[in-house]
Automatic annotation (TrEMBL):
Organism: Herbiconiux gentiana
The name this protein goes by in its record: ABC transporter permease subunit
Domain of life: Bacteria
Region annotation (Disordered) ranges: 1-21
Pfam families: BPD_transp_1
CDD domains, per the entry: TM_PBP2 (cd06261)
Record membrane topology: Multi-pass membrane protein
Length: 308
């Protein structure tokens, strides 16, 4: 009769290790948030009201209630009313609605950026001349100030006419988000597509396997460890690009515009100013969570991720 080890089958041990790793990550995440809260309140308690300055340079902020509200005041303000009359609603609900809007626009930008980045990577991998010609422009594209091109994208989009099609302002924001998202995808995917060992590529070639089949059966699976970190960066870039573009274009309904509107009330209601900032953080966490879920689905190809 075959004996069973006290720790169970290898599958159970691997499952236990994964559960332990997940619990550790959650504990570290919660500990990090708690550390930030403690550091905030500790500095507010012992820091100078005028802030820490070296000469004329402010190194650390002021500790007044206007500049640094207590954490419990910021959280409590989320559950109070915002607006007057029929438009009155809890602050958290207004922030949640704005966060959903921003998340939707960022998701569109992320998808467009991923598609464009993957197509560029495939093109550069297929043709060495294309890599030499396109790659420098891809790198150069990220040196253009985002806040400068946002109004231009909106103006160009407003001039497009396709029958009854109407260019909406949120589409300009999505284009700007994709502009930031495509860069890490194109670079990471190119590295991944070129990552298979030469012996494996030559084996496919010796069996007469075409380029397209080699792409789907060898190069794309091999690119997953490189692609996942790039997708994380693309998701973060899409969220940042969306929020900044909302501010630059003045698009209403999103987190970016809400940050500006609530900041105008900072002198009379400083705790409320932080509500949309919490919303932006939540949008980023949801985006990161989606990429983590995608990584779980592609777990069989994740032999070892490579930093982007």
């Amino acid at each position: 009769m075959t004996g069973t080890s006290p720790t169970g089958t290898p599958e159970r041990r691997r499952g236990a290790r994964r559960s332990g790793t997940t619990a550790t990550r959650v504990a570290f995440g919660a500990g990090g948030v708690l550390l930030v809260v403690v550091a905030w309140e500790l500095y507010k308690a012992i820091g100078p009201a005028t802030g820490v300055m070296i000469g004329d340079l402010t190194v650390l902020p002021r500790t007044t209630d206007l500049a640094m509200p207590h954490v419990w005041d910021m959280i409590g303000r989320l559950f109070e009313q915002s607006g007057n009359g029929r438009n009155a609603q809890p602050v958290w609900l207004a922030v949640a609605q704005a966060a959903v809007f921003t998340l939707g626009v960022a998701a569109v930008g992320w998808v467009v950026g991923v598609v464009v980045g993957m197509l560029l990577a495939i093109l550069m991998q297929r043709f060495r001349t294309a890599e030499s010609a396109v790659l420098p422009w891809i790198v150069l594209s990220q040196t253009v100030p985002l806040i400068a091109i946002a109004p231009l994208v909106r103006r160009w989009g407003a001039q497009l006419e396709f029958g009854d099609f109407t260019w909406e302002s949120w589409m300009s924001v999505a284009i700007i988000a994709s502009y930031l998202a495509f860069f890490p995808v194109s670079i990471g995917a190119l590295r991944g597509l070129n990552s298979p060992d030469a012996i494996h590529v030559e084996l496919f070639r010796s069996y007469g396997v075409g380029w397209w089949k080699t792409l789907f059966t060898l190069r794309l699976p091999a690119s997953v460890p490189y692609l996942l970190p790039a997708l994380r960066l693309a998701a973060a870039n899409a969220v940042i690009g969306t929020v900044v573009a909302e501010v630059s274009i003045g698009l209403r309904g999103g987190i970016g515009r809400m940050i500006i509107e609530f900041a105008q009330q900072a002198s009379g209601d400083p705790a409320k100013t932080w509500a949309p900032i919490f919303g932006a953080i939540a949008v980023g966490l949801v985006a990161a969570g989606f990429i983590a879920l995608l990584g779980v689905l592609l777990r069989r190809f994740r032999r070892g991720e490579v930093p982007a």
